[in-house]
């Protein structure tokens, strides 16, 4: 039986686009400026091996925009010492208050092995990391001696106020429940169908238990437009290795895209981040989503 997350779409969903790291870093500034000017709510950056750094890319995007929220989805926790991550996040959050969203996650395990940082229990590491990172960003003095995270009287001199909520990337049930328990939100990968998103939301709620606080669900959504939009979407689905018959993307005109995207809002997303193909000119894509798709979604 399908468990329904909601029966109505959020009043004003947030709308973003992915700046894929296959696009050169020197184009981030122009893409962020375009996103800012065209009314896009958010621009999301990936920290994939071995492309662009998430924190440095976010700094570029934030410094070339005035109202745009910039998300990093996500920082792989085996790569970054939690105290250093807290320092970097706090710096951006203070310099650009209210405009930063940070996600953390297990990291792609093959990449983690490739750089000598794969751990035997990613779940334990993520639990320790989320616990300590959120405490550090709240300005607390943290002593923690865990399996992977070891801190002794560590406290930020410049904690952000307010502290940004940390999101967690999650796919499997255990990580989804952990995100519901400890994170301010969950980043859902592209290639997730509405039914899969409903199931994910139920695991998140199970992790929250009786905790009534809000929990953001940011969902990447494969999206193509233009004269060959349908073919392009099928090609993208194939490149990711997804089932070609699965309901994992939207395509077509702005009206068709906005109409189809409602299914992910009904399934639980409150932030939709449209994900282009790697070769798509990013400024054109950002402008399309910001000026044509986002207004339709906001009108519901």
From TrEMBL:
Entries under Pfam families matching the protein: Bac_luciferase (PF00296)
All residue ranges annotated as the Luciferase-like domain in the record: 21-228
Keyword Oxidoreductase: yes
Coiled-coil region(s): none
CDD domains: Tetrahydromethanopterin_reductase
Keywords: Oxidoreductase
Keyword set includes Oxidoreductase: yes
GO MF annotation, one: oxidoreductase activity, acting on paired donors, with incorporation or reduction of molecular oxygen
PANTHER family hit by this protein: 5,10-METHYLENETETRAHYDROMETHANOPTERIN REDUCTASE (PTHR43244:SF1), PTHR43244
Name of this protein: Oxidoreductase
């Amino acid at each position: 039986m399908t468990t329904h997350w909601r029966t109505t779409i959020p009043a004003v969903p947030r709308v973003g686009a992915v700046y894929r790291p296959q696009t050169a870093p020197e184009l981030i500034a122009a893409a962020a400026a375009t996103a800012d000017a065209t009314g896009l709510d958010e621009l999301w950056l990936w920290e994939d091996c071995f492309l662009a750094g998430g924190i440095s890319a976010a700094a570029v995007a934030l410094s070339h925009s005035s109202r745009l929220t910039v998300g990093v989805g996500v920082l792989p926790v085996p790569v970054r010492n939690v105290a250093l991550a807290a320092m970097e996040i706090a710096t951006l959050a203070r310099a650009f208050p209210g405009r930063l969203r940070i996600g953390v996650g297990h990291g792609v395990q093959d990449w983690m092995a490739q750089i000598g940082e794969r751990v035997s229990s990613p779940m334990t590491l993520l639990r320790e990391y989320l616990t300590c990172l959120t405490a550090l960003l709240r300005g607390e003095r943290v002593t923690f001696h865990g399996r992977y995270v070891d801190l002794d009287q560590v406290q930020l001199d410049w904690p952000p106020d307010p502290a940004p909520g940390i999101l967690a990337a999650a796919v499997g049930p255990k990580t989804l429940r952990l995100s519901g328990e400890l994170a301010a939100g969950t980043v859902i990968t592209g290639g997730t169908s509405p039914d899969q998103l409903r199931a994910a939301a139920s695991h998140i709620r199970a992790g929250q238990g009786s905790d009534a606080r809000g929990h953001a669900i940011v969902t990447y959504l494969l999206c193509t437009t233009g004269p060959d939009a349908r073919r392009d979407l099928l090609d993208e689905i194939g490149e990711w290795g997804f089932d070609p018959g699965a309901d994992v993307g939207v395509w077509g005109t702005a009206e068709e895209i906005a109409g189809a995207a409602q299914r992910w809002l009904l399934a639980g997303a409150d932030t939709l981040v449209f994900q282009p193909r790697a070769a798509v000119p990013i400024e054109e894509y950002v402008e399309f989503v910001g000026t044509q798709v986002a207004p339709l979604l906001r009108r519901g």
